[in-house]
Amino acid sequence: MKKMLDLVVVENNKLNQNYCLLKLSTPDKSVLPEMYPGQFVEIRVVDSPTTFLRRPISVNFVDKLKNELWLLVQVVGDGTRKMSEYKTGTIVNLLLPLGNQFSTPEKHQQELLLVGGGVGTAPMLYLGAILKESGFNPKFLLGARSSKDLLQLDDFAQYGQVYTTTEDGSHGQKGFVTNHSILENIKFDRVYTCGPKPMMMAVANYAHKNQIECEVSLENTMACGFGVCLCCVEDTKHNGNVCVCTEGPVFNIKDLKWIS
Ligand SMILES: Cc1cc2nc3c(=O)[nH]c(=O)nc-3n(C[C@H](O)[C@H](O)[C@H](O)COP(=O)(O)OP(=O)(O)OC[C@H]3O[C@@H](n4cnc5c(N)ncnc54)[C@H](O)[C@@H]3O)c2cc1C
Ligand code: FES
After folding, report:
1. CB-side exposure of 181: number of CA atoms within 13 Å?
2. What is the third-level CATH fold of 3-98?
3. Is 50 exposed, middle or buried (0-12, 13-18, 19+ CB in 10 A)?
4. Which member of 56, 73, 147, 248 has the lowest number of beta carbons within 10 Å of its beta carbon?
5. Pocket of ligand 1 contains residue 248 by CB under 6 Å
6. Which of 229, 234, 251 has most ligand 2 atoms within 8 Å of CB, for mutation?
């Protein structure tokens, strides 16, 4: 059940020139609503003429002990720039939680691979944490342009083995995530992915070719976030055009038209 909530910024960590990690909590110490991996929030950004629409940001992590919601923000325009400037104590209005969630497999012996590229690594941290909590040993494959763009590696390492690729070879294997040798060396049962569309399509192709279950989290441009404006539609195999904000953002690749 989605709610509109005012949350307070308890920390804003600048991770590098383009990314920050916002930690938010309730101002009155009430418990945050339940949120699941793959879901997102819509943030209202005030004091800017170009941001009258809320901005969608994935749930990066929920620290239940500290009652904190973490959001990983990449600065690309006015809205995300404003977010990166939030000071401790800033009150932010959010609509949450939105969208569906990644599924959890039933059998514990499954080999699970979580692939993230760029800011698409954001939902993979919480997914990894929940999978670990449910008894799995997920593996993470994280891709970036260069080592300085690989974020939260210590956090990921708490929940599973971390493999990396960088385009310039400054960390892990050189190239794209789909070139990493782990894809040849381990037989995975299920792959989850989020990142730039070409990367997700390449991961989806790898999964399809190898008959691996695969879920992708789409980042279609959104406005309302709850199925009213229709600006986020994706043409699917079985249900025609669907709103990614309500039917997704997580889809099994069997439902997408990416693979014939
Ligand atoms: C479900 C979902 C989850 C997301 N999760 C995160 C997240 O965890 N962290 C994060 O930093 N960003 C995330 N995004 C992307 C984020 O919403 C956009 O980057 C943001 O809305 C841009 O707002 P802006 O005002 O800064 O930039 P704008 O001025 O609105 O746009 C600046 C540039 O970014 C491009 N852009 C805008 N929206 C998107 C989009 N959805 N995807 C790709 N490019 C876009 C525009 O085309 C333009 O070129 C997510 C998007 C979706 C749909
Ligand atoms: S964002 Fe408005 S319908 Fe999906």
Report:
1. 3
2. Elongation Factor Tu (Ef-tu); domain 3 (2.40.30)
3. exposed
4. 147
5. no
6. 229
Supply 29's token pair. Answer: 């110490």
Class of domain 112-217: alpha beta
List b or e across 148-184, with b for residues whose CB sees 16 or more CB atoms inside 10 angstroms: ebbbbeebbeebbebbbbbeeeebbbeebbbebebbe
Residue 204: which H helix or E strand, with range? helix 197-209
Number of C-beta neighbours around residue 71 at 10 A? 24
Tokens of 129: 């944490």
Q: What are residue 116's DSSP bridge partners?
A: 142, 194
CATH 3.40.50.80 segments of the chain: 112-217
For the chain, give every residue range classified as CATH 2.40.30.10: 3-98
Amino acid at 164: T
Torsion of CA 234, 235, 241, 243, to 10 degrees: -20
Q: Ligand 1 within 6 A of 43 CB? A: no
User: What number of residues does the chain have?
Assistant: 260
Nearest listed ligand to the Cα of residue 20: 1
pLDDT digits (tens, 9 = 90+) for 43-58: 999 977 787 899 999 9
What is the Cα gyration radius of the chain?
Answer: 18
Ligand in nearest proximity to the CA of 217 = 1
Q: Are 29 and 67 in contact (CB under 8 A)?
A: yes
Amino acid at 121: T
**Distance in Å, CA 93 to ligand 2 centroid:** 18
* pLDDT tens-digit map of 64-115: 999 999 999 999 999 999 999 999 999 999 999 999 999 999 877 789 999 9
